[in-house]
Amino acid sequence: MSGGDVRRLADWDRAHLRSLAAKYGTPLYVIDLERVRSNAQRVCRAFPDAHIQYAVKAHTGHTVLKTVREAGLDAECASAGEVARAFDAGYGANDIQYTAVNPPDKDLDYIVDCWRENNALTVTVGARDTLLRLSERGYDGRLCIRVNPGVGAGHHEMVQTGKDAKFGVPYNRAADVVAEARDYFDVIGLHAHAGSGIDVDQLENHRELVQRMGTLAREVGDLEFVDVGGGFGVPYRKDEPPFDLRVVADATREAIGEISAQLAIEPGRYIVADAGVLLTTVNTIKPAPKTTIVGVDAGMTTLLRPALYDAFHPMAILADRGDSPITVTGPICESSDVFCTDRPLGTPKRDDVIAIGNAGAYGYEMASTYNSRPRPAEIALANGTNRIVRQRETLADLTRLEKDEP
Ligand code: LLP
Question: Are residues 186 and 267 in the same domain?
Fold first, then answer.
């Protein structure tokens, strides 16, 4: 079961999830490391010739990074913090690509220090200004130019980076920027990323992006790799088909055409999304004129995606409670703090546990302490055992770094 193309919420063992909630309390993130491993292996099998990096931002947990590294994936990091986490999980500089997006000075200082220790590190840059700031710091190492391909894709317009001018140098300026950068840096790659959560229907956009990158690679020549980003979607709804990696791999190979550089990809969500669930406990049941409001102990601070992107996550009460429609809401004082509206999950009893599926990607990562809610704990499952891999924050943690002294 853990090795198939898709893992739905219904495939999780309900009794086991209930026992984890009872043992560790809720809200609780659960991450199944065996599923992480098998997702990574499936990507490797579909893209046997490609350089595969895990987009660390999807889930930066130490055990997840270790598992992904052991499965053979390198690391694509979006910040100094992610690079530090990658080192901490055993990655070496030659396995890390740092993708700079308007990088703060402190990030660049850290990255250049890392590079001085080991110049196998690769830095990806999407603005001429960043090139100048790197050279001011004496960096003249491995450099990849991020291109804005002018074509985006993804589950929501807020994550369609490929057509957002914020990311990458404009496609029609890219060859000039590469030529200029070659005077000072070791330009070894081109990079573009269409967006996140690309589904089967958006394959055309992916193909177009890859085609453009192939053309550009032939124009500039002499590269080690062409990185066409991540973004592979996973089905969040029951009736959505799984993303067929073989189809994407074939389309990618065909679209890129003949290039002398290696193809690189950097999936995040695909590796971890269906390896995670979030468990939350019902505390309030309130009949309302048009629905039943069910209050739970997780909220938009625990899993932000529904509030931010109106994202659908599969949900189930871990007890048989029929199929009446309910609206599940968290403890945050905001109307956007809603996990689902009028969904036929059945009417729970107080203390029932609700599981929220596909929470492994951009779940814990985007958690916050808004409303002074400590962040949840996380449990990792592996080889039939479970262990805490992130402690639940306490009320004391909320003020730990605050000072009120002159
Ligand atoms: N590479 C780059 C340069 C990226 O910016 C991203 C995601 C990825 C790779 C990985 O994309 P993935 O394979 O995970 O789709 N918080 C949003 C997703 C934002 C993704 C940002 N960049 C969400 O929860 O849907």
Answer: yes
